[in-house]
Amino acid sequence: MTSVTARAPGRVNLIGDHTDYNGGLCLPFAVPMSTTTVARPRGDDRLRIRSKAFPKSWTGRLDDLTLDGRDTIPDWVRYVTGVLWAAREDGWPLPGLDLVIDSELPLGSGLSSSAALECSVAIAVGTLVDRPLDPGSRQPLAELCRRAETEYVGAPTGGMDQLASLLGKPDHAVLIDFADLSVRQVPLALREAGLVVLVTDTGTAHQLAGPDSGYAQRRAECDAAAAVLDLPRIGLAWADDLSRLEDDVQRARARHVLSESARVEDVLAAVAAGDWTAVGAILTASHTSLRGDFDASTPALDLAVFTAVDAGALGARLTGGGFGGSAIALVEEERADVVREAVDAAFADAELATPTHLTVLPSAGASVSRSG
Ligand code: ADP
Ligand code: MG
Among residues 17, 20, 161, 293, which one is catalytic? Predict the structure, then answer.
């Protein structure tokens, strides 16, 4: 095999934010935009990694794929070398590699360009070393990529993004139960219902990596709440347990996690009943909880969400963790332009930079597009 081209999509999380690392439920779907990696084996032990999103390529060696070796590697390259590191830990016999990466996804805006990058690299390289992409390998590959992002890059993500990218399916969402890591593709026939999801990137990049990020703080608060209740993760608590949390902040964080998982179940019931108005209302309730109890919103996200609802969206919420990044709105297709223009006007009034928008529908998961 001389080269493999693999694509892996980004994702939008319809509902279920900050539930992944807490043992709760979430419901993402793969979007049409993806990242593509072309992988070529080399005859030596060198690694050459290039992304069209960055001017400089990086060159190193297989021996650099250690946790200590990562310190001198540029931030963006670590998402790639992290996957190669995790693959080697799993015993993949890696040759030297040339990797060329190209993406249609905005970076750092909540559509999970990081997971798309990791998954496309893992699939392309896996195909080269006889770890082919098949139904049984998708979930383990997602776990490999999650480990790369958590243990090597240092962004403590829960694994939703990688599972959505690998297990997405047209007109379906991916229901993930992080209590037991079970995954199920569930119908989400937005297209048939004449609906789209409007994604508004507020242009304020969210920063999830690093020990001081809001994400890491929330995660620590959730872990602390779980420890008080003597549980491994706070999502495994019952609603009755909340009163045993004396710390107001911990109780609020836990209340979000538990109510958010309940809302995922409510959305599933409303989708099954074809009640899209109810789905929208639950999405907006999710935002209220993320803004209040979880304190993960920003003024720009609030403006995008509440303007969209005022302009006729069925519901809206921040997505992908918050602290900046993107909001989504569930909108009738023919109303999407009106909502978009209303959000742009509100941002202009607030003297915020014009946001960027995309409309998405649940799309196919990762694939190998070419090998030869
Ligand atoms: P998101 O996953 O929501 O886009 P993250 O902060 O998790 O945001 O990941 C964004 C980071 O992932 C970028 O800053 C960059 O380091 C890396 N990344 C993602 N896509 C690419 C790409 N195509 N080329 C190089 N680096 C990328
Ligand atoms: Mg990410």
Answer: 161
